[in-house]
Amino acid sequence: MTDPALQPMPRVRRSRIFMRGLRGLCPNCGRAKLFRTGLRIHHRCPHCGMTLERGDGYYLGPLCINYGFVALGVVAPLLLLGVLGWISLKIALALAVVGGLLLPVFFYRASWSLWLMLYYLCLPDELHANRPESSDDLLFEEEARR
Ligand SMILES: [Zn+2]
To answer: What's the total number of domains in the chain?
Structure first.
């Protein structure tokens, strides 16, 4: 049996990266889920071997997406509704606190998927499938940082 990581892969277009991001799949091969258990992302894709969790602050991308969604999309509008009197301020505060604590956990997986999608939509040549054959030195460079 041949190692799938050694197989040549077709170039991945942005539309495919987008669809894989929406489905929570590896942006490189699209054949494996990003998470191995509830909140644990695969360090490497189990199918193609591309590094998914690159360390060194790479987690800040999903954190910013998650925080932005919860703070700007949920908590701020709830507080605004409470301040404007459309709903009781006590209810708005209670919903904001509960939402602020629970939604980041529920949105964690989606935020990782969105982050990888946005990252590779902006830098599609960073995908292993899109790297030229002569770029093995980049792979080794990436591995040397670990
Ligand atoms: Zn993969």
So the answer is: 1
Whether 4 is in a domain gets the answer no
User: Does 95 score more than 50 pLDDT?
Assistant: yes
Burial letters for 89-111: b for 16+ Cβ neighbours within 10 Å, e otherwise?
eeebeebbeebeeebbeebbbbb
In terms of residue numbers, what domain contains 37?
9-132
Ligand 1 center to residue 57 CA distance, Å?
A: 21
**Beta carbons of 116 and 102 less than 8 angstroms apart:** no
φ and ψ at residue 37, rounded to 5 degrees: -135, -175
Q: Cα(74) to centroid of ligand 1, in Å?
A: 33
Indicate yes or no: pTM above 0.85: no
Tokens of 43: 């360090």
